[in-house]
Write a structure and sequence with these properties.
The complex is a heterodimer of chains A (397) and B (99). Chain A has three domains: 88 residues, Helicase, Ruva Protein, domain 3 (Orthogonal Bundle); 177 residues, Rossmann fold (3-Layer(aba) Sandwich), CATH 3.40.50; 110 residues, Winged helix-like DNA-binding domain superfamily/Winged helix DNA-binding domain (Arc Repressor Mutant, subunit A, Orthogonal Bundle). Chain A is of the alpha/beta class and 397 residues long. In chain A, helix 14 crosses helix 16 and helix 14 packs antiparallel against helix 17. Helices cover 51% and strands 11% of the residues of chain A. The longest helix of chain A is centred in the N-terminal third of the chain and has 18 residues. The radius of gyration of chain A is 27 Å and the shape is elongated. Chain A has a five-stranded parallel sheet with strand order 2-3-4-1-5, sandwiched between helices. Chain B is of the alpha+beta class and 99 residues long. Chain B has a single domain, classed as Winged helix-like DNA-binding domain superfamily/Winged helix DNA-binding domain (Arc Repressor Mutant, subunit A, Orthogonal Bundle). Chain B has six helices and three strands; from the N terminus they run H-H-E-H-H-E-E-H-H. A three-stranded antiparallel sheet of chain B has the order 1-3-2. In chain B, helix 3 packs across helix 4. Chain B is globular, with a radius of gyration of 16 Å. The interface between A and B is medium-sized, with 13 and 13 residues. The structure holds adenosine-5'-triphosphate and magnesium ion (MG). Adenosine-5'-triphosphate binds next to helix 3 and helix 11 of chain A.
Chain lengths: 397, 99
């Protein structure tokens, strides 16, 4: 494999720390944030804002707040406003208010000592630093759960009531709190909770279509033209959707699939490499799962594997297509094929086990069809494993 | 104070060198780095501050010292230190003629 044969144009655009300029399907949330913080450009110091961003794993909470932070500080700079956005991952600072504040202070004074004062004093020091530099801060407390778990309601309480002891002085610190769910703030005192909850931005899990748009953007940025077929993107989106609409998972799959393409010297990324990528992520011992399947479930699954092996550019198969390959497999093993209705039941089973995924196509020319997808197992491996099992079962039986 | 007095002390030169490298530091960290006790460190910091070379800012109990960029003396010392560690070729021609 030579470097110029890579499918990638700029792999760094798939790095977990890369924050894209544009976040498809978070435009409304971005606008909301901009509205909540419009004062920071118009009249900084006149108020302090608190916003809660809530959403499941990989729904773009960190990316949204970082994109927003970079954009607003840029705008502030153009207007001569000394605005800083300090993004702290609370978990990374072991949920300690002291360490979080120390990090915040050290963005202004990099060699600030770590000992000799309490978190409370450090908070006052932070305010002093901001007063001296006439600076305003949007403090992003990412993964706030950690801080609450370790120190309870106190830190959030303090951070939302800074101004009470600063009569007449400009307000300096606004908060963006990031949480996976509202459950973790149930234990806060009602007034702190209501302060936080007055501005909530909820990030819903991404739909399949939204994931496709997100992926297409990254494909453009990270891959050479025409190296990632639509079917590959569709398959990734399908899988990431079933993983809770998780964009991180989608981007990781895209990257890994690309790595497989490079490793095997492919000039493009077929759907099969996505399956490989999934299985490498899960590293699931599917073998035991497969052994427990009934004879016809195995035959049907083998039919599906054969289909994808022969049509390596396809991410989905229609039920009719699979019935055809299933019939061939039955013939091969000398078994009478089961009826359509029975097959339907087997598919339900395979789908319940998470081995296949079923989806219904949006009404196309032929009306609604059931589409089958094999998300997590590379077809060659699956075929080999099933053939071995079936040979034993049919001959032995 | 005369220049030979101000710069004639190892610890003071060390302090200046360290602050030239890291921009600002609190007293106990300076003490640790020059390997002196708090009292001695304070004494030297005060001298350098009185000369206008350093100044400090208080944050609660913490005092952060740094060069006073408004002072010509401070700037001269910084420039001296920056040039000091630049590896310079020894003046070979001169040495050979002397020998
Ligand atoms: N709308 C989007 N457009 C482009 N990329 C996105 C979008 N949403 C998320 N991503 C990308 O998906 C990945 C995961 O997003 P992010 O880290 O923001 O999720 P999160 O909600 O913070 O997840 P977690 O709860 O696990 O911290 C990142 O690489 C991010 O850049
Ligand atoms: Mg995050």
């Amino acid at each position: 494999m030579s470097a110029n044969r890579s499918v990638f144009k700029d792999e760094a655009k798939l790095d977990i720390n890369y924050v894209p300029n544009r976040l498809p399907h978070r435009e409304a949330e971005m606008r909301l944030l901009t509205e909540f913080f419009s004062f920071a450009l118009a009249a900084p110091g006149k108020m302090a804002q608190r916003v809660l961003v809530v959403g499941d794993v990989g729904t773009g909470k960190t990316a949204l707040s970082q994109r927003f932070g970079a954009d607003i500080t840029q705008q502030a700079k153009q207007r001569g406003i000394n605005l800083h956005c300090i993004h702290v991952n609370c978990r990374q600072y072991r949920g300690s208010l002291f360490l979080i504040l120390h990090y915040a202070v050290s963005t202004f004074h990099p060699t600030f000592p770590k000992r000799g004062f309490s978190a409370e004093e450090l908070l006052n020091i932070f305010l002093q630093v901001l007063d001296e530099q006439n600076a305003h801060v949007i403090l992003v407390l990412d993964e706030l759960e950690s801080l609450i778990e370790r120190e309870g309601a106190e830190p959030v309480y303090k951070l939302t009531r800074l101004q009470e002891a600063r009569f007449g002085k400009p307000q300096r610190i606004s908060l963006i709190c990031i949480l996976k769910s509202l459950k973790s703030i149930e234990g806060l005192d009602p007034s702190t909770r209501s302060t936080l909850q007055s501005n909530i931005i909820r990030l819903e899990p991404y739909s399949r279509e939204q994931l496709i748009d997100i992926l297409n953007d990254r494909v453009q940025l990270a891959f050479k033209p025409f190296t990632v077929p639509e079917e590959t993107v569709n398959l990734i989106a399908e899988i990431a959707r079933s993983e809770g609409g998780n964009a991180r998972f989608a981007i990781e799959l895209l990257w890994r699939a690309g790595k497989y393409a490079d490793a095997e010297d492919f000039s493009y990324v077929p759907p099969e490499f996505v399956r490989k990528a999934v299985s490498s992520i899960y590293a699931i011992a599917r073998k035991s799962d497969l052994a427990t399947l009934t004879l016809h479930e195995k035959l049907l699954l083998l039919g599906l594997a054969r289909f994808f092996k022969e049509n390596s550019d396809r991410a989905y198969a229609s039920l009719t297509e699979v019935e055809r390959t299933y019939a061939v497999v039955c013939e091969e093993f000398g078994v009478q094929p089961h009826t359509h209705t029975q097959l339907w039941k087997y598919l339900q089973m395979l789908s319940a086990l998470g081995i296949i995924k079923k989806s219904v196509s949006s009404a196309g020319q032929r009306g609604r069809t059931t589409l089958l997808c094999l998300p997590s197992i590379p077809v060659k491996e699956l075929e080999k494993e099933l053939t071995t099992l079936l040979e034993k079962e049919v001959e032995g039986g | 104070m005369q220049i030979e007095e101000v710069l004639g002390n190892r610890l003071r030169v060390k302090i200046l060198k360290i602050l030239n490298q890291v921009k600002e530091l609190n007293v106990s960290e300076i003490a640790r780095r020059i390997n002196a006790n708090h009292k001695t460190t304070m004494k030297h910091l005060k001298i350098l501050e009185n000369e206008g070379i350093l100044y400090h800012k208080r944050f609660g109990r913490i005092r952060l010292y740094r060069f006073n960029i408004n002072s010509a003396k401070a700037r001269a010392i910084q420039s001296l230190m920056e040039n000091w560690d630049k590896s310079e070729e020894p003046a070979k021609s001169f040495r050979t003629t002397v020998k």
